[in-house]
Design a protein that fits this description.
The protein contains 76 helices and six strands. With 1719 residues, it is an all-alpha fold. Helix content is 66%, strand content 1%. The relative contact order is 0.03. The chain starts with a helix and ends with a helix. It has a two-stranded parallel sheet.
Length: 1719
């Protein structure tokens, strides 16, 4: 042992190599390997003397660090010889030694062919590698494993860079071991080693460094698709340990290649476009864009792998299984490479082009093979390309998607089960990456030139989910069909889930970006932060490609819309060509010129070639121009005629009609000759030949033609066509052969029959030629490579695609793109989920569908797509089967759970869809109650007709229900079920249920036990987390559901109503803006329900509202807010509108309870409280009025300060409420108390208790009273106090006309007491307002009634009118007058301007037809003037007397109109001369002269005359009294007014007395009616007597200057009128007046008794007149005597009843006339 340890000398290399050489010597055959043995011995000797020199780590100058190049070659030479010996016993220790050297890093440097100048030092190492590779073919198990171990350790060693051919050789060696290994374990190990080598190489390529962390391969994953049959028990574990051991053994200082590239993040920022590598591999190493050796080698290896995967079996060996295995292995290794690949492949143009030119070509060529493993590997590689490199492979992916995925997916009837499962699994992986789904839609479905891949995926999945159409034949077994259906639904669910995830991610990024500056992070970085997976970030998340650009949704929307419009036009063209062209031109998708239309027909994919031909052959003008432009767009220069016609007909199919063909060929011939002028002598030749060629093509290639045209026939048919000459026979023969051998056909004619939709999509992509290669029924030995021309064409297409500007890859971060995606996929998804959920009872499948519904609702709700959202929600709601619980299954219960999840997860965006969800929750609760045996809500709401049934329900309970004996109508309806939208019981609901139905229903109800109350209530409790908009929508929906519940005619329920209370409770603490919107909805709801015809429902609603209000009033409300008022408004509206006594009483009780229990919290709510009590005060029910007033009394007595604590205007509401109570007709006590409370309110108002002293320190001066005048002179109508006093005082003012005496008096007293007590607070302006709006209306109401009655009487004289003009009694009049006078006198200095109004009121009293008010008026006027005394100014006295005068004269016109009504009554003998009337005055009167109507009128006129005379005399009396008491205070103007007053009344009396005919009629009527007549003579005597007395008094006292008032003239005039009246009465006529007209009577008739009485009555008046005249001064008498002397003469001649007249007359003659005569 010690000897072996000492072998090899002191160096590290020696210690490894020595023992191995010793073993080689022992195992070698001396004769056969003598050279080897001697070499080993000499090397051992050499090692003993070698010592390691100091070298820098990683120095690649020498193969073995520490040894010179020659020494290293010397040491390694025996190992090379041993490896090259092909003798297993010698090879094995050599392999072991080499493995140690590589693993320990004792060999370093670049390994390549010795002729490579860069690797000249590694020649012996290269030879060793070469020898090792050759050793792999020895067929020994141990040797094979050793070779694999050494090769992997060599590649793994960071000290060795194995270059180009060496690397290829190593890979080829491992390949060979895999293909021909001695056992399965070795083959698996070889495969694992190859995979690990790929991982190592391309990890280094990615980093461009030898020092990288390498991921170990998983052997189990490598056997995913193939080679499972190689597993010999524990082969997988053995292979995995084998790989792990090699990977763990590697160590050493990493090599730094001499031409290593700069760091990747600095390099290739803008790489130049490299020269594309051709497929022959002729480009030299080191000519790449970056010159990196590591990447050069990786590129070469990748290219070789791709070529290896494209090898096909030869025709001699069609069943070459080894070749197939090698192809599969190369594809597996390419999959490993793509798994390892990262951003470098996207950033580096060379590698990206390698994928396009080599890998994509490999996928294309292998796509025709039917081997399942190849297809699976292709799909896996495609998945890698899609997830990592899609930004650089847009066109390639657009081609492979339909070819690999969609074709299999859309094959519903005859698919390969394994292929389709592979595709479905692939789609499932794709759909789990949200960004891939979005990118596919953005770059293909929104690209005009691309297929709608996303749409086809979704529709294909829908077809698969629905299964083969009914009646069609399919190769699938039922189990396979169900598997397909479930997998396709799973994919659809993943798609919509990914859309939701991407949406949430973008929204989150948007929220994050709000907190950042726009420059702080790019969208790509945000993607990485939120979505990038470890080491496998999706394509553009890490490094946005140089040819990708970020697009906004608006641009994509335009592109998508353009594409849809274009496809619509194409589809229309394919049905009706002219319509399609018109549509496209009108929508500006193509130009309107023939040239533009021709280019469209020539270049647009998707057009039907037959339709193109038909259109080009049309004879109309525009299509003809288009055809000419179409043909002229071809350039046939230099083309052979046959080649030209073939080229021309590639784009369309010739129409079948000969005339159309003729037109097209004619134009073709013209164009061909124009391009080739020397070809034919004329265009006619070309035209005939073209037609002949078409006929030949049809004849040669149509199977229906039996007798084919020969070459001679063709030549003969075309003789003489060249201007009468023949074309060369050789030319025609060659043309014939060309046509017969190769049919002229369109590009699409070679495609296999496909369904119409697939055809259109393939044409859109230009995939017809590609897909023609792919025949899914081909055997694997038939190589597509045979069609080299087509493959080369596609390869060129791959190359050119990368340079096209339209291949720009679009990246979108705007979530608005989801709208367009949803528009595409929501219909198919809804159909797939619904059908599967309906037809399948598989728990997994139904669970998937419900998940899909949930994600779909999430996306559509957040995106605000109302129609789609509601469709999904409605579908889930219908699948709950809650509307027909008898058919319920577990999947329906799962649907209920899904509904609840939707409500909780997406509640913020459901809006109108809440109604469906809440309806479901309502039905769940209903069914659960039924399951518990609880009585239905209808028990409490139905009429007494159902009492017996309800009792039965309560007594039987659930136990009887389970036995099926309960036949409640509501129960029957639930068990029988109805439509989803039904809310009422069906027609047959009354039918008896069977026991089986009941038992089935019970078992289904037991399923609902899975949904507890917690889940139900969680939805409502969760409402407090909804945003502001969502909670309003939620409440609206809940109200709607609740109303539909309550309105059910058979089964009203309160579930929704109770939940509304809960919701309001949960959300009461929301901000005021949101809560206000919520309450607007709830308020309308409570009003609607509160006015329900169902009393119990309304009571329940009002009680619920009370609960909420009590809770709400616990919250504090700040001043000047109005929300409490809004909250309580439903009570007010229902109180005002409800016709139900119970509801109104309940509201009053609720409000009372709330106020009394929460009085300190009520703020703005007082307004609603008083409005409720106001409505209650006017109620028709006494108990409601009393109940309301009881609370009102308590509020005013105990809680008055709270009323105006924060809102002073509530005082007005309180006053209005109390005023309404004063009008209560049920109880006078209520009214009187209300009036008393009004006085209390006035006291509080006067004390300043309303405004809370809020202005006391700022702008509210304290009230100072001086001489009864307040300093508040600046009050306006807008002032706070005015606005408070007005309603209070006005209300009391109106109350004074109440029909109840006690109320009138009380209100009158309270009104004036308030004014008197608090009048000192009022300004002059406000006092004026009070008189106008409060005080005077009190009296106007009374007088107004009287005037109204008078007016009625004027219009209808026959109506009997009582003397009482108002409802006031004498006492009330007295009180009213006293109050007014007291108030006026008290505040006279402030209100003196109202004197005329006050006097007018008193004179109105005087004018009253009733004695009481008239006396009151007189006394009042006397008292008023007496109390004021000297305080009245001269002008004010004049105002008083003017009022009296106006009072006297204003009634005269009306009275005279009444008097004139007697003119219409005809009475016999009354129209005679006065002498005859005298003679027949007092006898022969009968009732026949008056009918009843006339008597009634006469009675009324007599009554009015008496009242009028009394009123006139009363005014005279008042005037006289006032004059006597205050004559010293009166001015001349006042005296003048008094004179006019007396004079006007006296003249009025005289005029009335002269109406002799009217008076006679009235006398007759009075005689018949036996009533006294009107005192006309008395009226006249009194008025003149007072007039004379007043004038004589003035004359005697002489206080006034006679110049201002002609007093003597007035006196003489009055006396003259008195004498004249007396003389007329006595029957004497003044001679002075009548001498010229009437002859003097010869004899005088004796006076009648009536005349004598009248003369006697007038005697005193005449005596006063004579005395007045006699009292004139001498000069005055002399001046005036000519006016009345003739009267004195007539007076002498007249007959008198008394000697006093003669006595007075003689005195006058003696004293006055006599003196004049004597002088």
């Amino acid at each position: 042992m010690s000897a072996s340890q000492s072998l090899g000398g002191p160096s590290r290399c020696g210690r490894v190599v020595g023992p191995s050489l010793d073993k080689i010597i022992k195992n070698a055959a001396w004769r056969k390997h003598s050279h080897l043995v001697s070499s080993c011995k000499s090397t051992l000797d050499k090692l003993e003397s070698l010592s390691e020199s100091e070298t820098s780590p990683g120095d690649t100058q020498y193969p073995i660090p520490g040894l010179s190049s020659s020494d290293a070659d010397y040491v390694l030479q025996p190992l090379f010889l041993a490896l090259d010996s092909a003798y297993p016993k010698v090879v094995e220790p050599a392999l072991e030694c080499t493995f140690k050297l590589f693993s320990l890093g004792l060999i370093c440097g670049e390994i390549n062919r010795p002729d490579n100048s860069n690797a000249s030092q590694s020649g012996v190492v290269f030879n060793m590698i070469d020898a090792i590779c050759k050793s792999g073919g020895l067929g020994e198990e141990v040797i094979e494993l050793g070779v694999l171990r050494v090769l992997l350790s060599a590649v793994r060693s960071p000290c060795i860079l194995i270059r180009a051919d060496s690397l290829i050789q190593i890979v080829r060696t491992c390949y060979n071991v895999y293909l021909g290994g001695v056992n399965g374990t070795n083959q698996i190990c070889a495969k694992a080693v190859l995979a690990q080598i790929m991982t190592i190489v391309f990890t280094r390529v990615e980093e461009d460094s030898m020092d990288v962390f390498v991921k170990r391969v998983s052997v189990g994953e490598l056997l995913e698709f193939t080679d499972k049959n190689l597993n010999e028990g524990n082969s997988i574990q053995i292979s995995q340990n084998f790989i792990n051991e090699i990977m763990e053994a590697s160590e050493g200082v990493p090599l730094k290649p001499s031409s290593a590239s700069p760091p990747p993040e600095v390099k290739n920022v803008h790489p130049p476009l490299p020269k594309a590598a051709d497929e022959t591999g002729t480009e030299e190493a080191g000519t790449g864009a970056d010159g990196s050796k590591i990447r050069e080698d990786g590129f070469l290896l990748f290219k070789n792998l791709c070529k290896l995967s494209m090898k096909f079996s030869s025709q001699q060996h069609p069943d070459d299984r080894i070749l197939l295995r090698g192809k599969i292995l190369s594809l597996e290794l390419l999959k490993v490479v793509m798994d390892t690949g990262g951003s470098m492949w996207r950033m580096n143009e060379r590698f990206l082009n390698a994928i396009k030119q080599y890998l994509c070509l490999s996928l294309l060529k292998n796509s025709a093979l039917s081997a399942m493993a190849i297809f699976q590997l292709q799909c896996s590689i495609f998945m890698n390309l899609l997830s990592k490199f899609r930004s650089g492979l847009k066109k390639e992916i657009g081609m492979f998607f339909p070819m690999l995925i969609l074709r299999v997916l859309e094959n519903v009837l005859q698919p390969s089960f394994l292929q389709k499962m592979t595709v479905l699994n692939l789609l499932d992986k794709i759909s789990q990456d949200p960004q891939i789904i979005i990118d596919i839609f953005v770059n293909y479905d929104c690209d005009v030139d691309a297929s709608n891949i996303f749409e086809r995926i979704v529709n294909g999945l829908l077809k698969t989910a629905l299964g083969p159409p009914t009646g069609s034949t399919t190769a699938l077994s039922p189990a396979q069909d169900i598997t397909f259906r479930h997998e396709s639904v799973k994919c659809l669910v993943s798609i919509i889930k990914s859309m939701g995830s991407w949406m949430d991610q973008q929204i989150t990024i948007g929220d994050l970006d709000l907190a950042k500056t726009p420059e702080s992070s790019s969208a790509a970085e945000s993607h990485l932060i939120l979505n990038g997976e470890e080491g496998n970030a999706s394509d553009h998340e890490l490094h946005p490609d140089v040819n990708s650009e970020f697009s906004d949704a608006a641009t994509l929307e335009q592109r998508r819309a353009y594409k849809i419009e274009l496809h619509k036009g194409i589809s229309l063209f394919n049905r009706k060509t002219s319509k399609g062209i018109e549509f496209l031109i009108s929508n500006k998708k193509i130009g309107s010129s023939p040239e533009q239309v021709a280019l469209f027909l020539k270049n647009t994919a998707g057009l039907d070639e037959t339709k193109i031909g038909d259109y080009l052959g049309e004879r109309e003008e525009f299509p003809l121009k288009v055809m000419h432009a179409y043909v002229d767009s071809f350039n046939f220069k230099g083309m052979d005629f046959g080649e030209a016609i073939r080229f021309f007909l590639q784009g369309f199919r010739l129409p079948g009609e000969a005339q159309k063909i003729d037109r097209i060929m004619e134009k073709f011939a013209e164009r061909y000759c124009k391009c080739n002028p020397s070809s034919f002598s004329s265009a006619d030749t070309a035209y005939v030949l073209a037609y002949s060629v078409i006929m030949l093509n049809t004849d040669a290639h149509n199977n229906m033609v039996k007798d084919k045209m020969t070459k001679a026939d063709f030549v003969r048919n075309n003789r003489g066509i060249d201007d009468g000459k023949d074309l060369p026979e050789e030319y025609l023969g060659a043309l014939y052969d060309q046509i017969v051998k190769n049919e002229i056909k369109m590009n699409a004619d070679s495609s296999a029959p496909q369904n119409k939709q697939a055809n259109s999509f393939n044409r859109l992509l230009g995939l017809d030629g590609i897909l023609n290669l792919v025949n899914w029924k081909q055997s694997e030995e038939k190589a597509v490579g045979a069609n080299g021309l087509l493959i080369r064409h596609i390869q060129e297409q791959f190359k050119s695609n990368s340079r096209k500007s339209e291949s720009v890859y679009h990246v979108v971060t705007d979530v608005a793109i989801l709208r367009f995606m949803v528009e595409v996929c929501w219909g198919p998804m809804l159909a797939a989920f619904s059908v599967t959920l309906d037809q399948s009872d598989n728990r997994v499948a139904t669970s998937q569908c419900l998940q899909g519904f949930r994600h779909a609702v999430h996306v559509t709700a957040v995106m605000g797509m109302q129609t789609q959202r509601d469709a999904f929600v409605t579908s889930v709601a219908k699948f709950t089967y809650l509307h027909c619980a008898g058919d319920m299954k577990q999947k329906n219960v799962d649907a209920v759970k899904a509904i609840i999840s939707i409500a909780i997860e997406d509640g913020d965006h459901l809006y109108e869809a809440w109604e469906h969800i809440l309806t479901c929750l309502s039905r769940i609760e209903h069914l659960q109650l039924l399951g518990e045996g609880a009585p239905s809500d209808a028990t409490f709401f139905t009429s007494p007709n159902f009492e017996t049934e309800e009792k039965a329900m309560k007594t039987l309970g659930f136990s009887s229900f389970k036995k099926g004996t309960l036949q409640n109508p509501a129960m029957v309806a639930v068990v029988r079920g109805s439509s989803y939208d039904s809310t009422s019981i069906g027609v047959n609901a009354s039918a008896i249920l069977t026991t089986e139905q009941i038992n089935n229903f019970i078992s289904n109800l037991n399923l609902l036990d899975q949904i507890g109350n917690f889940e139900l209530n969680h939805v409502f409790a969760h409402s407090q987390r909804l945003n502001g908009e969502a909670i309003v929508a939620f409440v609206k929906a809940l109200c709607k559901v609740s109303i539909s519940e309550l309105q059910s005619p058979t089964d009203p329920r309160v579930f929704g109503l109770t939940k509304i209370v809960e919701i309001a409770h949960y959300n009461m603490n929301r901000i005021r803006l949101v809560w206000s919107r919520i309450w607007n909805v709830l308020s309308d709801f409570f009003v609607s329900v509160g006015l329900s015809e169902n009393l119990s429902v309304a009571i329940f609603a009002m009680d619920s509202l009370r609960q909420l209000a009590m809770k709400f009033l616990e919250r504090e409300e700040l001043a000047n807010y109005n929300f409490q008022n809004e909250f309580l408004r439903p009570f007010v509206i229902v109180m005002q509108k409800s016709n139900t006594t119970e509801i109104r009483e309940l509201i009053v009780r609720c409000i009372s309870q709330m106020v009394l229990s929460r009085v300190s919290n009520v703020k703005s709510g007082w307004k609603s409280v008083f409005m409720v009590f106001t409505a209650a005060a006017a109620d028709e029910r006494k108990n409601i009025v009393l109940l309301a007033f009881e609370t009102m009394e308590k509020i005013v007595r105990e809680f008055f300060p709270y009323i105006t604590e924060t809102e002073t205007m509530t005082f007005t509401d309180c006053v209005r409420c109390l005023l309404t109570f004063t009008n209560s007709r049920f109880n006078s006590d209520v009214s009187l108390n209300a009036i008393a409370f009004l006085r209390f309110c006035a006291v509080r108002l006067a004390d300043g208790g309303l405004v809370c002293n809020k202005k006391s320190n700022v702008d509210g001066p304290s009230v100072v009273v001086a001489n009864g005048i307040s300093d508040l002179q600046d009050h306006t109508d807008n002032d706070d106090h005015v606005s408070f006093w007005n309603p209070l005082l006005s209300g009391l003012s109106k109350l004074t006309s109440d029909p109840r005496s006690a109320i009138r008096k009380s209100s009158l007293e309270v009104l004036f007491n308030i004014l008197k007590d608090h009048g000192h607070l009022f300004s002059h302006t406000f006092w004026n307002s009070i008189f106008c709006s409060v005080i005077f209306p009190v009296y106007n109401l009374v007088s107004g009634k009287r005037e109204m009655n008078l007016q009625e009487a004027h219009c209808s004289p026959s109506v009997s009118v009582h003397n009482e003009g108002s409802t006031w009694d004498s006492e009330t009049y007295s009180v009213a007058a006293e109050c007014l006078i007291d108030l006026f006198v008290t505040f006279f200095d402030v209100v003196r301007s109202q004197l005329p109004g006050v006097v007018s009121v008193l004179t109105e009293f005087i004018r009253s037809p009733v004695q009481g008010p008239a006396s009151t008026g007189v006394a009042g006027l006397v008292r008023l003037t007496g109390d004021l005394g000297n305080r009245l100014s001269e002008e004010e006295w004049k105002e008083v007397f003017l009022c009296l005068k106006d009072a006297a004269m204003s009634t005269v016109p009306g009275f005279m109109k009444v008097l004139r009504t007697m003119n219409n009554i005809e009475v016999p003998h009354v129209s005679q001369p006065s002498a005859d009337l005298e003679s027949s005055s007092d006898h022969d009167l009968t009732n026949d002269e008056f009918d009843d109507d006339n008597l009634q009128t006469a009675t009324y006129v007599v009554s009015r005359m008496k009242n009028h005379i009394a009123m006139q005399l009363l005014i005279v009396q008042v005037a006289t009294d006032l004059y006597k008491k205050h004559q010293q205070s009166l001015s001349a103007a006042s005296i003048k007014v008094l004179i006019e007053l007396y004079s006007s009344i006296a003249l009025h009396a005289r005029d009335m007395n002269r109406e002799s005919i009217l008076l006679k009629k009235l006398q007759k009527a009075c005689s018949i009616l036996e009533i006294s007549g009107p005192p006309m003579v008395h009226f006249e005597n009194e008025s003149f007597q007072n007039h004379l007395n007043f004038l004589q008094n003035l004359h005697i006292h002489g206080h006034f200057v006679h110049d201002e008032i002609s007093l003597e003239q007035e006196l003489v005039d009055a006396c003259e009128k008195v004498l004249d009246i007396y003389l007329n009465c006595a029957g004497s006529v003044s001679t002075f007046h009548n001498s010229a007209t009437l002859p003097a009577p010869n004899r005088k008739l004796p006076l009648s008794s009536a005349r004598k009485e009248e003369i006697a009555a007038r005697t005193s008046l005449v005596i006063s007149a004579l005395q007045g005249l006699a009292g004139l001064k001498k000069d005055s008498f002399r001046r005036y005597i000519p006016r009345f002397f003739h009267l004195l003469v007539d007076l002498v001649r007249s007959e008198h009843t008394s000697g006093e007249v003669q006595h007075a007359l003689s005195n006058m003659f003696r004293s006055s006339v006599g003196q004049i005569i004597m002088d």
